[in-house]
Amino acid sequence: MIVVGERINGNSKRVREAVVGRSADFIAREARLQVEAGADYVDVNAGTEAEREPDDMVWLVETVQSAVDKPLCIDSANPAALRAGLQAHKGQALVNSVSAEEARLEPVLDLVKGHGARVVALTLDDSGLPETTEQRIAIARKLAEAAERAGVARDDLFIDPLARAVGLENEQGAAFLDAVAGIRDSLPGAHVICGLSNVSFQMPARRLLNRTFLAMAMAKGLDAAILDPLDAGLMAVVCAGKALLGQDEMCLDFIQAYRSGRLGTQT
Amino acid sequence: MIVVGERINGNSKRVREAVVGRSADFIAREARLQVEAGADYVDVNAGTEAEREPDDMVWLVETVQSAVDKPLCIDSANPAALRAGLQAHKGQALVNSVSAEEARLEPVLDLVKGHGARVVALTLDDSGLPETTEQRIAIARKLAEAAERAGVARDDLFIDPLARAVGLENEQGAAFLDAVAGIRDSLPGAHVICGLSNVSFQMPARRLLNRTFLAMAMAKGLDAAILDPLDAGLMAVVCAGKALLGQDEMCLDFIQAYRSGRLGTQT
Questions:
Q1: Distance from C-alpha of A187 to C-alpha of A154, rounded to nearest angstrom
Q2: B177 to chain A, minimum CA–CA distance in Å?
Q3: ipTM of this complex
């Protein structure tokens, strides 16, 4: 299970202010806390206006890479910011994200390939957000074909079948989960990733819903997630899920996490 | 999701003493608490010696049916105790359990059919406990064929693919989960049930493992579970899982459970 820490995101006012004010200590601390809690990648999203975003992204990449030893997930809808972030990044980055929208697909994949990066690919095309399992799988195939044409290795492709709010559309949880399994079956070697928290949008008890949904998605084949690693209950589910799926030899990581108190109090 | 409350089980010393001492108040209270917490069936297992077990089972059935309005799950390895329990039971009981062991298969299914009951069928035959997904599915098919021959309706069959301890054999969690999905696919209309707690045998943080495994199994198609309904964290996962799988229209049960405080504090 690959964990992408989501906390350095300019959609949060506090993070955006830290980016604009160049508060390196704040950003470095957020990075270190996430890595200590188990993040494999640290997502960086500046969240600033398009004009200044490339510079902000370079500053973020340099600041976070000075603080931690993990690769970054360079997160922007702005190709100029992705390019600037990739140029500043040392090692193999993860790009967040491409989609099957025509204007973005090939340019972003070329950029990914040019920097030897990995990429999150959203099952979204010019007709909008997918509703059904089948739509998600069809777009995933299109993404995988385009990645192959661009020379991006299957192992560098992280498909995100886009979790939607079950509180608004009750059937979207099952549609997503079946898409996870379908993508794992039809695109062997590709990873399946998601941002969890959309599923619980506008519902109470969101942390419980997110935890339960993460366990469900892991059982269906999800092998990466964009989440808050400081949510100890969520990370406990990652750890338990790996042990239960046979991904933790002799359950040693799980037992170690228990002994060090990382599984929390509800055990 | 069908919840079978497991607390009235003579393997617990306190319950066995209550059975032997005919402590109706204790048994009735255990039954009421489980039903209030959401049990759809109340399991009754006397746990006493074979000779007296039929009488004890009759007393249990009468005592619990006087206390609650839910059907019982009549639980014994002893056909005489199952028969006595079924004769005493009002309404449609669930029998726990039959297996594909030759000496038990047809006699117990005939008893089930004779009383119009439902039955838990373990994927276990004379060669012992199954190791692989394929063994579990093969035995499930054998059970379904025997049930059909005996005239037990598919909807009255609850297949238990037998969860085994991941701490002892790391691959058993995944083998079980794939069997849940395989049985749902190959035997449409049959239910899939399990006793959860074996999966965490000899591990620390068992409640966390059991909760996570329940979510995983629900995602794979488990639609019934034998568990302790007084474990609020586990029942919160049942409730969240139903909402996430589209089994809770408009998420009304989930929202109601939240408002009444039944989802606990880790939300």
A1: 8
A2: 8
A3: 0.96
